[in-house]
Amino acid sequence: MPSSPKPALHIGYFGRAGSFSHVAAERRFPKEKLSECPTVEEAFARLQGGTFTHILVPIENASSGIIMNTADQLMRLAKTESSATLQIREALAMPITYVMLARPGTKQVTKIYSHRAPFDHSRDWLAKYYPRAEQVIVESTSEAAALAAKEKGAAAIAGTQAVQKDLRILRRNVGSEIANQTTFIIVGAALARTSKPTHTNIIFELPHKPGSLVAVMNVLAKRGLNLTKILSRPIPGRFSEYRFMIEFQGAATAQPAVAALKRIGQITDFLSVIGSYPVRNI
Questions:
Q1: For the whole model, what pTM was predicted?
Q2: Is pLDDT above 80 for 261?
Q3: What is the 3-state secondary structure (H, E, C) of the chain?
Q4: What CATH class is the domain 98-174?
Q5: What is the pLDDT confidence band of residue 177, given thresholds at 50, 70 and 90?
Q6: For residues 169 and 140, what is the distance between their CA atoms, to the nearest angstrom?
Q7: Are residues 60 and 188 in contact, defined by beta-carbon separation less than 8 angstroms?
């Protein structure tokens, strides 16, 4: 019998066309349907609502750290029934370079739009070259470019892919004295073709008593599982209590991780494996 056709994927990416997430989505899914999503929160909502089969969103920037919007949405997802099927399936690391865009003929920049991550990365560069320009944080670099195209004296820090007919590159190599990259995650159902998992992400809550986090760290350390991310966020309605997200090297099905997760489940109030996935360079 002929094989069944591969089900079509519909990938929602963070930001507008021309964002770094859009570039990552095009590189990873060149033949699939791609749709923009203005915010990370909306991307997750539309994934859970069935509009998208998968979403691609940033999780970490090498200069500014973990993207809190994404981490918060993963933590919320972990507390739902959808977490059994909607998980992190891949992480994609992509080198990032920034340029400053402005309308043709711009001589003086009084306002700069960008996402928080480019501002964090370019802090010293901006202090040197544009110390008096107002910095306005927006949802994405693609939104920054759209705003700069409409406003006299405004500029945007974005990627070269955000160049449009109403914008020109004013300065190249913004903040290039420090190498930079962003890691994106693909969240959704299992992918038909992907590499073997190399990392695992867990979300958990702890008893509110001394040493509870140390106990989890010791479980991972004793089994040789190296941490690559750790983040704490307040638990809504539970003052001074926190929910944790940890990524460690190793597949969830490998014996060290199996043993560790079993023990962590015994000493935490809540535990969810939100994904076991490969980390790829694109």
A1: 0.92
A2: yes
A3: CCCCCCCCCEEEEEECCCCHHHHHHHHHCCCCEEEEECCHHHHHHHHHCCCCCEEEEEEEECCCEECHHHHHHHHHHHCCHHHHCCEEEEEEEEECCEEEEECCCCCCCCEEEECHHHHHHCHHHHHHHCCCCEEEECCCHHHHHHHHHHCCCEEEEECHHHCCCCCEEEEEEECCCCCCEEEEEEEECCCCCCCCCCEEEEEEECCCCCCHHHHHHHHHHHCCCCEEEEEEEECCCCCCCEEEEEEEECCCCCHHHHHHHHHHHHHCCEEEEEEEECEEEC
A4: alpha beta
A5: confident
A6: 18
A7: no
State the pLDDT confidence band at 172, using cuts at 50, 70 and 90: very high
Task: Output the six-digit token pair for 8.
Answer: 């079509």
Confidence tier at 106 by pLDDT (50, 70, 90): very high
Confidence tier at 129 by pLDDT (50, 70, 90): very high
**Whole-angstrom Cα distance, residue 246 to residue 230?**
4
Q: Which CATH architecture has domain 199-281?
A: 2-Layer Sandwich (3.30)
When pLDDT is averaged across residues 107-127 and rounded to a whole number, the result is 95
Q: Which CATH number fits domain 10-95+181-188: 3.40.190.10, 3.30.70.1530, 3.30.980.10, 3.90.550.10?
A: 3.40.190.10
- CATH 3.40.190.10 residue ranges in the chain? 10-95+181-188, 98-174
